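The methods section describes the discrete structure representation at length, but only in general terms. Since the whole study asks how a given chain folds, the encoding of that fold should be made plain. An entry of this sort, consisting of the sequence and the corresponding backbone structure tokens, reads as follows:

. . .
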Amino acid sequence: MNSRIMTPPRVGQRVSVSLRIKALCETLTRSATLALVLALPVAAQDYGNNKLPKMPDVAIPLTPAEKASLHAVEVRIAGVEAQLPRIDDPVYKARVESDVRDFKRRLAVLQKKYDPASAEALMHSVISRYQVTALWLAPPRVAAPQK
């Protein structure tokens, strides 16, 4: 703290809040100051109750370009689903099925409230999953070593 001790403001004197707090803190002992600091957040105003109520989801009509974009995603999701019967590993198949469910959930959200960035991210995810699954299904490029 400052080595110069501030005198408390006189009655009726206009002083900023920070100067009042500083003068008060300098007159209190260290333990009392610590107690005051710990008590301040509890006494702070709660702004959490002033939140606006959640608005209901309303489907906004899609433009032809948005419909075409979502249709392209649907076609690619169907491509990933077409790969499912060829997967013989149950763990990997469960993972791909989980991804397909997630893709469909995200697509349903986009059909209600279209967002170009989310649509592009979904398209990227679906294409990536298709390519990874196709590579997983492909035979190995390198022959197994012979003993």
In short: The chain has two domains: 1-40, 64-137. The chain is about 60% helix and 0% strand.
